[in-house]
């Protein structure tokens, strides 16, 4: 792992891929924008396949992995371009089913859900009752805002009511924000972070937690000596998680940080700006690349 501001700026993965046995890809901000694949992403995945480099997906998507795969296919991203696909929602889902972890074991049956209808796969096969009012709930599941363009403040009263009853909250997406089709919107992590500020009990699942990488690596069994490269666009999740896991990471600078780095997708930022951002966040990267491309 490269430390501090000692990293290599590259124009594509082909420049360094010979050093690696496999790749772990983030999705939103790297492969697609929540609506459409980026122009270079499918060709890059096809080139990785042609080069014989296996690919796994690890996404902070608060839904079942099967839903993520289906959405990728709808976008025209073929299933044979990658192996395991792990969504943070799947990690939480498996814990909810097992109820063996002490935190999950204490959850009751009555749950209030905050988030869009597209995340309802989290309740498949679960022995729970979905309630509409905080007063009736044993715990909260937050997968995102109910409406994509809500602000965190929309949920202030709900969060205060939940804290008054000391309800635990499960958040299977630590992301604070994402860019969807060009618009910056909040994610579940922004609502859960506010609940923590209020003193609420939040259980997080997904990147940057080590458990997310463990879950992915168990499915993506490449052996203890395999050299892995993570490709992501978020310093707080992809890079922080890779740093925690001791994995090399290529930061796609044209993703969530493009605006603050002053460099659009496909172009590399000024090194001084990237150095300053890395120093401010305490993160280390191995490579900087303007886009996920070959």
From TrEMBL:
GO MF annotations in UniProt: phosphatase activity
Cellular component GO terms, alphabetical: cytoplasm
Transmembrane segments: none
Superkingdom as given in the UniProt entry: Bacteria
Record Pfam families: Hydrolase_6 (PF13344), Hydrolase_like (PF13242)
Family matches, as InterPro entries: HAD-like_sf, HAD-SF_hydro_IIA, HAD-SF_hydro_IIA_hyp3, HAD_sf
Record SUPFAM superfamilies: HAD-like
NCBIfam families on file: HAD-SF-IIA-hyp4
Protein name, entry field: Sugar phosphatase
């Amino acid at each position: 792992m490269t430390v501090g501001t000692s990293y290599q700026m590259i124009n594509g993965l082909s420049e360094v891929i010979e050093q690696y046995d496999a790749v772990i890809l983030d999705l939103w901000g790297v492969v697609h924008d929540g609506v459409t694949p980026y122009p270079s992403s499918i060709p890059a995945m096809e080139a990785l396949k042609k080069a014989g480099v296996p690919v796994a997906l690890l996404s902070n998507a608060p839904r079942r992995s099967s839903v993520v795969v289906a959405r990728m296919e709808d976008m025209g991203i073929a299933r044979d371009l990658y192996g395991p696909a792990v969504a943070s929602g799947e990690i939480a889902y498996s814990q909810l089913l097992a109820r063996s972890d002490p935190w999950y074991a204490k959850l009751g049956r009555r749950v209030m859900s905050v988030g869009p209808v597209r995340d309802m796969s989290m309740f498949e096969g679960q022995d729970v009752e979905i309630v509409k009012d905080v007063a009736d709930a044993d715990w909260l599941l937050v997968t995102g805002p109910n409406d994509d363009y809500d602000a965190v403040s929309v949920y202030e009263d709900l969060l205060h009511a939940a804290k008054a009853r000391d309800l635990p909250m499960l958040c299977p997406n630590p992301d604070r924000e994402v860019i969807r089709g060009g618009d910056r919107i909040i994610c579940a992590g922004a609502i859960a972070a506010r609940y923590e500020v209020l003193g609420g009990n939040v259980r997080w699942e997904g990147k940057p937690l080590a458990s997310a990488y463990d879950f992915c690596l168990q499915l993506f069994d490449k052996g203890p000596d395999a050299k892995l490269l993570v490709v992501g666009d978020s310093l707080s999740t992809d890079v922080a998680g890779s740093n925690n896991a001791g994995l090399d990471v290529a930061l796609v600078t044209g993703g969530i940080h493009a605006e603050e780095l002053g460099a659009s997708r496909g172009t590399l930022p000024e090194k001084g700006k990237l150095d300053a951002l890395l120093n401010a966040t305490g993160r280390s990267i191995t490579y900087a690349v303007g886009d996920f491309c070959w």
